[in-house]
Design goal:
The protein has 316 residues and is an alpha/beta fold. It has helices at residues 5-10, 16-28, 31-37, 42-56, 72-99, 118-130, 148-151, 213-220, 239-247, 259-262, 293-307; strands at residues 61-63, 68-70, 105-111, 135-141, 157-161, 169-183, 204-206, 232-235, 253-256, 268-272, 278-285. The strands form three sheets. Strands 3, 4, 5, 6, 9, 10 and 11 form a seven-stranded mixed β-sheet that branches.
């Protein structure tokens, strides 16, 4: 017998509860805060972590004066614990679907204020009505991580604006016109409509290099219809930074027409630019997630919401 084999066979496996506690400690790096999140006492949490360490045969946590830190083994075990806990949640979703109910947690990404838009709100309301036991967590995703959050499994589905990269499946939810955002004292701000040619001399806010260029070039119409490249100005990471750059007269930007309602600011004006085309809202997911019970329920709610009043759209 290889030395240690008997010990490995005799030791008990960790519980899911202990793995969840470890993950919370890894997030908080403080026993008191982690215990409060689980509504247990700090000594009870500390005892469960010690039991987990005994079962695994490694030290996971180093106790410090003002908190704790993970050992190298603790970091590795926490990473695998996340996969185990997420895997169990998916397993329970599958089992619940066959039992006639969907429980567990669905993580839905939202690019900026997308989840607050009428089409997305209608989807989420229908989902709550039909699957009251399903916990729905809406997570805000920015321009940089919007697509990666789906690809790496941080979210199960997401409300996004097109165009979408290849590799995603989607359901088109709504369409609206697009506008240019100008400083109120801009000479063009008094116009009812504008052409891209009249905006050719203006700098346009840019995106960080991590944002897919295809996506941003499409939204800024780069190059312009006559082949002229857009002159990009300051780099921004979210919509608030966009409108601030316009207020500071550093650049202009293009947004969906709903920005008039979502981002009204003194000193800003939104003007229609028909050449910009429409802004299209999607519910997107990975093909591998399509038939997960919670994602399937979300897709069903999205189709129902669209049929009950959203503009016609194609494909899912």
């Amino acid at each position: 017998m290889v030395p240690g084999d008997g010990r490995r066979r005799r030791r008990r496996e960790p519980s899911i509860h202990q793995l969840r506690l470890l993950l919370t400690v890894a997030e908080e790096l403080h026993f008191g805060r982690a215990a409060a999140r689980h509504f247990i006492s700090q000594p009870a949490l500390s005892q469960q972590i010690r039991v987990l360490e005994e079962r695994l045969g490694v030290t996971l946590i180093e106790r410090l004066g003002g908190g704790v830190r993970l050992t190298s083994a603790g970091s590795a075990v926490a990473e695998q614990s996340r996969a185990v806990v997420d895997g169990l949640e998916r397993l329970m979703q599958v089992a619940d679907a066959h039992a006639g109910a969907i429980t567990g947690r669905l993580r839905v990404g939202s690019l900026g204020a997308e989840a607050a838009m009428p089409h997305a709100s209608a989807v989420l309301a229908l989902l709550r009505d039909h699957q009251p036991q399903l916990e729905v967590e809406v997570r805000n995703v920015g321009f940089i991580q919007q697509f990666d959050s789906l690809s790496n499994g941080e979210v199960d589905a997401a409300f996004l604006r097109g165009p979408l990269p290849s590799g995603f499946q989607s359901l088109q939810l709504a369409t609206e016109s697009r506008v240019v955002c100008l400083a109120a004292d801009d000479p063009l701000a008094a116009e009812k409509t504008l052409t891209l040619a009249r905006l050719a001399d203006r700098l346009v806010v840019d995106m960080p290099r991590e944002v897919p260029r295809m996506w941003w070039d499409h939204l800024t119409v780069n190059p312009r219809p006559d082949g002229t490249p857009v002159r990009f100005g300051p780099v921004v990471r979210d919509t608030e930074a966009m409108v601030l750059a316009v207020l500071q007269k550093r650049a202009i930007t293009f947004l969906p027409a709903s920005a008039r309602r979502l981002y009204p600011r003194p000193g800003l004006v939104y003007v229609d630019v028909p050449e910009l085309g429409d802004s299209v809202s999607y519910l997107a997911w990975l093909p591998a997630n399509r038939d997960l019970p919670a994602v399937r329920a979300l897709r069903t709610a999205a189709r129902s919401a669209r049929q009950q009043g959203e503009r016609p759209a194609t494909g899912d």
